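ok so i was messing around last nite and threw this chain in just to see what happens. nothing serious, just curious
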Amino acid sequence: MIFTNVQKKRINLYFLVGLGMIDFRSVLYENDIPISNEGYSDPVSLGKNKASSEFIIPVAIGANFNITKLIDLNVETSLHSLVSSDKLDCTRESRNDKYGYTSVGISFKIGNSNPPHLAWISSKEKQKFEEKLARQNKSEIELLSEDRDLLATKVDYLDSIVNIDKQKEIEADDDNDGVPNSLDLKPETPRGELVNFQGIGISQKETIVYIDTIIDKSKELLFSIYFEFNSTTISFSDNMKIAEAAKKLNENLYYKIEIRGHTDEIGNEAYNEELSRRRSQAVSDVLVKDFNINPDRLIQTYRGKDDPLSTKDDYINRRVDFIIQK
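result:
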């Protein structure tokens, strides 16, 4: 057999000692005539009584030999001593009875041969196992750190909500025209009248011009998040971005966000349009369920594969855009 410089352990020696109980029946013959017995009512016909029971102390030494990954050879020599008894040989001598034997056996491992029994793992394999376990523990620690960071972000978000609620209490709007009293130049606006940012009423004609101007200037691309191929799963880092969007909405009570879904060019038009809709929906669900954003402030749109950013990188095109509407 040829061994490499790192040789597996092939022999495992062992020693054992214990305490047990033995049940037995025995007959002592002299010239083929039974003269004494234990556990029989009639030593001639061998009619059975209750078997004799005695405590024994087994002592053994043995060795296991690893033949293959599935087969072990076992050799064991043992001596069994009865405790305070001389009944086993049906004599009444002053010493306790003893008996011993040597056994040879083969054991087979059932199932997959990997991993091997720990008794047969070499020091090099043990080191690899410990390194793998250390990597797993490190990954768990990193996940816990990510959870801690996400929790800290949510705490900051909740703090911002508290601050905004306090601001709402301070910034009252008595005429409910959407302009706080501190900025309202006409604090008694009739209900339902359209006003500008100073709370001054504007006509329908002025409103059309005003709204057209605002739409052109008030849309701002906040950021985008990106998806794996054919996926709507939101990554941990993108969850952090969504938390920032929620914070932006709560700091600016009159803002809305358009959530615009996109896909790459792989696949047919109908499927990609539905996939972009599901991506937009997934982001909206996070904002509503995790950050308690009013769904009326979210505008869901989807473009399928009609609005790519890159002609070379499909990953850039698998995205959701966050567009602030002030």
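not much to say yet. Residues 11-109 form one domain.
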